[in-house]
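Input for the complex:
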Amino acid sequence: MSSVTFEHVYKRFGDVVAVNDLSIEVEDKEFLVFVGPSGCGKTTSLRLLAGLEEISDGQILIGDRIVNDVPPKDRDIAMVFQSYALYPHMSVYDNMAFGLKLRKTPKSQIDERVKVAAGLLGIEQLLDRKPKQLSGGQRQRVAVGRAIVREPAVFLFDEPLSNLDAKLRVETRANISKLHKRLATTFIYVTHDQVEAMTMASRIAVMKDGILQQIDSPQDLYDNPANVFVGGFIGSPSMNFFDATLVESDGKLEINTGGFRLEVPAEKAKEWRAFAGKPVIFGIRPEDIHAKQFAPPNILESDMDAKVDVTELMGNEIFLYLMSKDNKQFIARVDPRVRVSNDDKIDLAVNMANAHIFDPKTETSLA
Amino acid sequence: MYRNKYRLIVPFLIPSLLLYVTFVLYPYGRAMYISLTQWRGLSKPPVFIGLENFSKMLGDSNFWNALGNNAFYIITLPLFTIGLALFFAFVLTQGARFARFYRITFFFPQVMSMVAIGVLWSFVYHPTIGFLNSFLKLVGMSDPPVWLGNPDYVLSALSGVAVWQAVGFFMVLFIAAMESIPATYYEAAMIDGATQWNIFWNITIPLIWGTVQTALIFIMIEATSMFTITQTMTEGGPSRGSEVLSTYLYHEAFINSNFGYGTAIAVALFFLTLLISVILTRLLRRESLEF
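Predicted:
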């Protein structure tokens, strides 16, 4: 159990800045997820913390201890690798026991800890097998088991689910969440999958090009993205963005994208009025665009229409690929009872309570 | 369809098969036969004498002396060659400075002719003008040994040359094997708490075991021969102090014209090599690894 602190951490590979001025405080027992597209610096940040890469600048603390120059083995961490890195010549038992043997743990204690971890993960019957005799999911559990037996202060996970099939991934996700509650230890987890991040994290750190974009709880990140990138990255399908202008006429505020106009309801207008007359990026999530006839009550409704380009039936909902009058495509997640075909016109109700505007230059959130 | 396929394959196979039969299988069979004869070489045809050559061999102290010398190499060559090659390969794959330079330098003896190496090292070991003894005198040894002229030192001296010659090759072999090990194993081991020595012993060696096994068999085959180095540097001397089976059989056959007996020794050497290879393969067998 330990907190982890990144203080103005940089990592440069030649001219490339892989991690750029990263400052994060991870509390004890927290489940922090680094998320971002490939090459965003999330894995490098984890490797810096593990001691597998050297920090170019700044410092990293585990607990109160600066670990910049501490070798990986003395950092009191354990790591689960994307490839699992199970030693192919050792049995599952030996894989799990290896770290303890190296630390000269008494044999009886090794045995006990391996058995307990194996029980926790449901792999007792696999202890004599070699990694190549295991399925992907079993290997993944052994890799987690190898980390657990060490009883580290901090667990590091580097995309541990990316080699599993979709169904197993969902299952394992839940198991890792349970494990976190059970072990009550700090977890730091790297993934490119925003669904993993949303479902498991106590807080998510979104990174892009080596720079931390936003760090927040999943719900806050979803509701209040700090910029266009975070808004687009979190949530699936992605948030729709439109270049627009905030127009004020007769005391009414309107979003005008050229393809459609949306009235800004009075409650929202209070926040947005300061930007009247200015160009903005208008962001609205697909789930906040409803078919008018099935629009839920109590939303800050504003109406528009659009042409249907493609429909995708998901069963419990329909993804509508819509076309505005200026031929800009956007997506709506609508009620499955909606019956429309391609090229139909559809009346839409937009929930402006969850709409966002961003600065077109800096792409940061305005309100 | 199949008939057409074979029509194409057979013409390709026949030339190499003919060459193999003529230059490998036939000589092997012929040697087996000659080992059962008494034959002076050129003149009269071989006289069949059954296993007499082999029973003579059992009582021949020169044969046992040569076999003993081979045994010395069978122990020292693998130990030092493979040991050093593994050490250098590990160091050079761990991001040592000037790794490329060392790699090429260590590999260099491999591209030199064995005869040239023999001549070169004869000079290095030369008792008065040799590099080694000059150096030993420089550091204060007043009476350095006559390396190639003393039966107590000659085997060590020659095995030093064989090791020097072979290390580079096996090092390159091991480097290739080590570089195919995914870095995450090392990283996982580092986090697990392994020292460099732990990593070498518990991760690297087991993961390149297949290559080590092949290398051991190669070097073992060289240890059962040691012909070129011995012949060019000492011709088996002094007083048979460095004589090995291959030089002994050469002397018996081509100097003493005992082709029957010489060939019998060659046949014995063949089975000895085969036996060692089989035993080694059995002893060193591990299940194959995937990574």
